Prior knowledge:
Elements (H helix, E strand, L loop, with lengths): L3 E2 L13 H10 L4 E4 L6 H9 L6 E12 L2 E8 L6 H29 L5 H8 L6 H10 L6 H7 L13 H10 L3 E4 L13 H12 L5 E6 L4 H14 L2 E5 L24 H9 L5
Parallel strand pairs: 1-2, 2-3, 5-6, 6-7
Antiparallel strand pairs: 3-4, 4-5
Amino acid sequence: MNKIDLHMHTTVSDGTDTPEEIIGLVKEAGIDLFSITDHDSIKAGQMIPPMLTADSPAFIRGVEFSCRDDRGKYHILGYGYDPDVPGIAETVARGHALRMEKNKSRLRFLKEQFGFEFTEEDINAFLSLDNPGKPHLALMMVKYGYAEGIQQAISGYINKKTFRNVNIRPEEAIDGIRRSGGIPVLAHPAYGDGDQTILEEEMDQRLRYLMDFGLKGVEAYYSGFSAKIEAQMLAFADKYDLYVTAGSDYHGQNKLVALGDTNLEDVSKAPAGLTRFLQDVTIIV
Length: 285
């Protein structure tokens, strides 16, 4: 196994490639092991295994929960869970319900703050998506001429208000993942709210806080990390005996990130935390 990418999104959440398309794209990118981590959904994790053939890359079921509490914002990844065990399904259902509530609040905010209105037909289409998010709303804004592009729509308008009471809490996400036999991992750990970067003592405190809930790993290899951030995350993983994962956070055309862009050049030379993760997580071949 030479190349892995354990963080990517499909049309089930806010990516632009379907789960079916992802399999071919992953293979073309030379990736040997992949995971789809759609937001608040395990649908792709149920769809992919029957589609795999003898020459397909190996697969790990994944999910990503957008979490928040009074200490801040966290994205919790879940790997290798059993989709038939209630814990993960219950957590996904709660996360999805909160996501829908937040989307309705965003629509109200855009109308009240900026006067942005959409037809009832377009609003219903937006809310009927599997897991509508910021990119979908941004695309609708571009369609109406309210923004020139997705990034301007998000940074210039959508992100102007934070909705603090419509996110699943990190302990809920971690508990749901673990109750279904999965491994909870902190996604892109150094990134907090907005442009916030969390390092050193603040990161140490954050990790210990989440470990008390059962966090088991960190995404130390990530497309957006500098060498300094990566080194710090690997040091923390070593310090606390945490699993290590690697992910690009690929979203297709919704993000300028390529499949396999994890900053991990050679899996065979990866730290013990990644080796242990690959030994302990459920891999579907």
